[in-house]
Write a structure and sequence with these properties.
It is built from 1 helix and 4 strands. The chain is an alpha+beta fold. The protein has 2 domains: 1-38; 48-97. The chain has a 4-stranded antiparallel sheet with strand order 1-4-3-2, with no helix packed on it. The termini are far apart. This is Lysine 2,3-aminomutase. Keywords: Signal. It comes from Bacillus amyloliquefaciens (strain ATCC 23350 / DSM 7 / BCRC 11601 / CCUG 28519 / NBRC 15535 / NRRL B-14393 / F). Residues 1-27 form the signal peptide.
């Protein structure tokens, strides 16, 4: 009894697979004929890089601003140090595009 069910099930699944095969073949060829080939254009954007700019001559630590605009780019204060002549230097960082 079990063998009869296995054989019947196998025969039905094989018949279904064989009968559906032409449908898959025509569907694949129909889509490949109707799809137009378009070339992709890649846009290359310039890579930004991190720029460190020291600005000197500040009279005190508290006179150094937290951010400044340098050559059209906003730079942010990352470090401050006192020079030997008593003035302060602010080290600013920002991302600049080429």
């Amino acid at each position: 009894m079990k063998m009869k069910k296995v054989l019947t099930g196998s025969a039905l699944s094989l018949a279904l697979l064989v009968s559906a095969a032409p449908a898959f073949a025509t569907a694949a060829s129909a889509t490949s004929n109707t799809v137009s080939v378009e070339k992709e254009q890649k846009v290359i954007t310039p890579q930004a890089y991190l720029k460190r700019v020291p600005l000197t001559g500040y009279p005190s630590r508290w006179s150094i601003p937290n951010k400044t605009v340098f050559m059209g780019v906003t730079l942010y204060l990352k470090e401050a140090r006192q020079e030997s002549d008593g003035t302060w230097t602010g080290i600013f960082e920002g991302w600049i595009n080429d």
